[in-house]
Amino acid sequence: xxxNIWGIILASGFSKRMGKPKLLLPxxxxxxxxxxxxxxxxxxxxxxxVVVNPEVAELRNEVSRSCVSKxxxxxQAGQGMSTSLKAGLMNxxxxxxxxxxxxxxxxxxxSDDIDAVIECYESNGGPSLSKQAINRKEGILFCLIARCxxxxxx
Length: 154
Fold this sequence. Notes:
28% helix; two-stranded antiparallel sheet; six-stranded mixed β-sheet
């Protein structure tokens, strides 16, 4: 039986060092965030939740134009990445078995990489951490099982 595995894209940073929204910078003809969304949508994920900073209107608009399952505004973005993870987990359907967590600023992560994490989870029956080498760049994806979601609601 196929598991109900969702993706959570964390995209609510402030891009302070860049001086402008990093996830909207062009890469190979489209914004960085769009690469992550497109690859997530092409993967075996059952659905995709994107967590954004509500103060970055252009990013919110870009994600709204995509076909993600849900856009979540992280009103606590200034308190760190953990608040985005928590917001994403809280907005998954109750039927989700697991979640693959992706970072919005990793445009080299492919649908094959995401599917590899899903396959690892399905074959092991538990959480998995996958560090994928992609064109000599590193990307980190991990899968959380549903019974661990409550840890982040504290």
